Amino acid sequence: MAKRHGLPPKMTVDELVAIERTPPAWLVQSRANRTGKPVWVELECVVCGYHEAARPKKWWPEYTYLSCDDHGADELPEPEPGVVRAEVDGVGSRFVAIVDVAP
Ligand SMILES: [Zn+2]
């Protein structure tokens, strides 16, 4: 599909972000056919600000923060008192989803 639309096989994050800002007609059309679900989401590390665009996966949790998988837990913002924090690996290419849940 990428070939058919004349996109290079590998895009950089900047190119993806540029497309997001000015989506070409075929992308708008393709989204309209997908019951309004976003095709790409922007993932951003809360610690260092690294970001990338990724296709959302159904199994991703509803996260409070994202962090690169090479940051320590002590680099993250403190959880609110009383919440239970869980981490889910494997979001995007390098992110850990931090999920704070109030019991
Ligand atoms: Zn980071």
Distance between the termini: 44 Å
Helix percentage: 10-25%
Secondary structure: number of strands: 5
- Residue runs with pLDDT of under 50 for 5 or more positions: none
Q: What sequence of helices (H) and strands (E) makes up the elements?
A: HHEEEEE
Number of helices: 2
Rg, Cα atoms, Å: 16 Å
Beta-strand level of the residues, as a percent range? Answer: 25-35%
Derived from helix and strand composition plus strand pairing, the structural class reads: alpha+beta
Small molecules in complex: zinc ion
Major pleated sheet? 3 strands, antiparallel
The coarse overall form would be elongated
Major sheet: arrangement of strands = 3-5-4
The overall pLDDT average reads 83
Explain the overall architecture.
The chain is an alpha+beta fold and 103 residues long. Helices cover 17% and strands 26% of the residues. It contains two helices and five strands. It has helices spanning 13-21, 25-32; strands spanning 41-44, 51-54, 65-68, 84-91, 95-101. Strands 3-5-4 form a three-stranded antiparallel β-sheet, with no helix packed on it. Strand 1 (41-44) and strand 2 (51-54) form a beta hairpin. The longest helix has 9 residues, at 13-21. The radius of gyration is 16 Å and the shape is elongated. The mean pLDDT is 83. The structure holds zinc ion. The site of zinc ion has 7 residues, from strand 3.
